[in-house]
Amino acid sequence: MALEAIVARYGLAAVFLGAGIEGEAVVLTAGILAHQGLMPIWGVAIAAAAGSCLVDQFWFWMARHYAHWRWIERTKRTAAFKRTLGILENHLILFTLGFRFIYGMRTVTPIAISASRIRKRTFVLLNAVSAAIWGPAIAWAGYAFGEVVGPLLHKAQTFVLVVGALAIVGAIAVAKFWHGRRRRGRSAREPG
C-alpha cells in the first residue's frame, strides 16, 4: 500500500491520538503533511483539538477520582507539579485556558488543576475552548512551516521515514532513561 493511501486512511486517527500523547510535534508534522496534500488541514486541526481535549479531560478526571493512584501520587511529587500549583493559586482560569500552550507543563497540569478549587463543569468548558484554539493554531503553524520545508523535501515519504526513525530513536532513548532511573531508584532504596 502506498504511503499516501496509509496516511489518507489512518492519518487523522494518528493525529487524534498523537495530539493527546505527544502534542505539538505530532500536530506540527501533520500540518506539514497537510501542506503536502496528504491530509486535509481542517481535519488535522479538528483531530488535534479533539485528541488534546479528551486526553487532558481524562487526566483531570483520573486525578479527581483516583488521587491516590501511584502514577498520580508520583506526578504530584515532581517539581513541575509544584510550580504548576504555584501559578494556579493566582491565575486559575487564565492558566487553565493557556496551559497547553506552555511547553513542558502539559502532562502535569490537568492533574494539578484537579487539585485546585475549579469545578468539573468549568474545567470541561475551559479545556474545550483552549483545545479549540490550540488545535487549529498548531496545525496551521505546521502548514505554514510546510511552505518553508516543502521545497527541501523531494517526497513526503522521505520526511515521514525520517520522522518515524527519529520517533523510534527517541522512544528507545526515553525507555532507556526511565529504565536507568528506576534501577538507580531501587539501588538507592536497598540497604547497603
How many helices? The count is 9
Give the strand content: under 5%
Give the uncertain stretches in residue-range form.
1-7
Total number of β-strand segments? Answer: 0
Produce a short descriptive summary.
This protein has helices spanning about 5-20, 25-35, 40-65, 70-75, 80-90, 90-100, 110-115, 120-150, 155-190.
Question: Can you walk through the features of this model?
Answer:
Helices cover 79% and strands 0% of the residues. The protein contains nine helices and no strands. It has helices spanning 3-21, 24-35, 41-65, 70-76, 79-90, 92-98, 109-114, 120-149, 156-189.
Core attributes:
single chain, 192 residues, mainly alpha, 2 domains, 79% helix, 0% strand, globular, disordered N terminus
Annotate the secondary structure layout.
Elements: H1 3-21, H2 24-35, H3 41-65, H4 70-76, H5 79-90, H6 92-98, H7 109-114, H8 120-149, H9 156-189
Helix pairs in contact: 1-2, 1-3, 2-3, 2-8, 3-8, 5-6, 6-8
